[in-house]
Amino acid sequence: MDQASIDALRAAPVAAFGHWINGASVPASDGQAMEVQSPIDGTVLTTVARGTRADMDAAIAAARATFEDGRWASQAPAARKKVLMRWADLIDAHALELAVLGVRDNGTEISMALKAEPGSAANTIRYYAEALDKVYGEVAPTAGDVLGLIHKEPVGVVGAIIPWNFPLMIGAWKLGPALAMGNSVVVKPAETASLSLLRMVELAYEAGLPPGVLNAVTGEGAIVGEAMGLSIDVDVLVFTGSGTTGRRLLDYAARSNMKRVYLELGGKSPNIVFADTPDLDNAAKVTAAGIFRNAGQVCVAGSRLLVEASIHDDFVSAVARHAEAMRVGDPLSLDTAIGAVNSAPQLQQNLDFVATARAEGGQVVTGGKQVRKETGGFYMAPTIVTGVAPGATLAQREVFGPVLAVTPFDAEGEAVRLANGTIYGLAGAVWTSNLSRAHRMVRAVRTGVMHVNTYGGADGTVPLGGVGQSGNGSDKSLHALEKYINLKTAWIKL
Fold first, then answer.
1. In the chain, how many domains are there?
2. Is 61 found in the same domain as 43?
3. Of 53, 124, 182, 314, whose CB has the highest number of CB atoms within 10 Å?
4. Whether residue 264 lies in the annotated active site
5. Taking residues 424-449, what's their average pLDDT?
C-alpha cells in the first residue's frame, strides 16, 4: 500500500449502485435512489438504490427459492468450500480498492481500514470455508436396539443487517458462517456505508456463488429493514447496531414467524487500570488507541476508563498526551491516526454528549470540539472527560464516538462494581501485574470479552458476544456456526 495508489483510487469516479437480487444488480422498483455523502469532505460520492418493501420481498423470495431448490444447500461441502475460498482470494486481490471505497463512504482511517475491512473479511470467509467440511453430525449414546442420529442442517433464509463502522468485517462475520452452512442470505447494508459491502457481494458472484444465494438490498431501516424483520420467509435474523433497533427487530419477529434473532448491540466497555500495571505508559498508549481509533466508532471501544485513584492524575495526563499525538486528518492519508466521524448527525450527537457531560460536572481534559470544519467533512478531536460520576450520562450511555469517560476507584471491589454498573456487557480490560487479580477480574466483570494487559486484537478463533443489553449469540469462531444450523434428531428402531 502506497499513497500514490490510494490517491489514484480516491480520484476514480464511483458509479451508482443498485441492489443485488437473484444474482443481478437492479435498481429500486420505483426508480428512487439515495445520495451517498462522503464524511471526508461532505461531497456527494454516488447514489445507491432506495429500497422499497417490494424490493426486499423480491430479494427474500429469491433467497427462499434458491434454498428450496438446493442449488447451494445441497452442494457437497467440498464444492461450497471451493467457492468461498475463491471469494476470499478475490477480496484479497481487490483489497485496496475495497478499502479505499469503504473509507470514502464511512471515514475510517485507511491504515486501519485495509487490515480491519478487506483483510479481516477475507480471513473470515476463508476460516469458515475451511471449517464447513469439518462439521459432523452425532451418534447418541442409546440402548442397543435404537440408533439416535443428530443431523446439523442449514436453517434456510438468513437476514443480516450490517452497521456502518466496519461493513466488510462485520458483514463477513455473518455471511461467512451462514453461507458455509448452506443457507441463502439477504443482507441489508447501513444507509451511510453500503458501497464496499455491495462490491463484496459482486465479488461473491464472480467467485461462482449461484444466483440468488446472496442478495443485498439498500435503503432505509424503517422500510426495508422492517420488511425483512416482518417476513415469514426469513428464518434467522442477525444484527449489529443500536439497542433501539434491536428491540424493534425482536418485536418484528414476535409479530411474524417468531424467527430467531441474534443481536450485538454495543456497549460501554470498562478499561480498568490498577496502580501495579507493569508499564503504565504503554497502558496509556493502548488506552488511547482503544477508544480513539476509527474516531471511537468501535463496538468494543474502551469508552470508560476506571483508574486506581493513586495514579489517576498521572495516568490521565499520559493518556491525554498520547491522544493529542494522534493526528486527526484525511482518512485516505497514511499518516492519519484518527479519521472522520461517519455523518453529520453522528458528529452532533458526539458533541451533545460532551455538553451533557460538562453540565453534569465532568471536566474536559482535552478535545471536546469539532475540528477540520473547513474541509466540509465531519471530524472531532479525541476527547477525555474526568470527574464522571458512575450514574452520569457519559458513564451509562454509548456515545459511539471519540469520547473517553474517566472515573477513579480505590479498591478492587469498587472497580468491579463500577465495571458492572451499566446495562451493557460487551467488552472490557484489566491492567495489572497481579496474576491472581487478573483472573478474579476476568471472572467478576460481566462481559463477553475481557482483555488482560491489552485492549483489542482478539482474532477470529474466539467468539465475540455480549451479555445484558449488549445482545445475545456470538460472532466469530466455530461457535458462530451454531446460529445458522438446525439440529434434527433421527430416532431409529433397530
1. 2
2. yes
3. 124
4. yes
5. 98
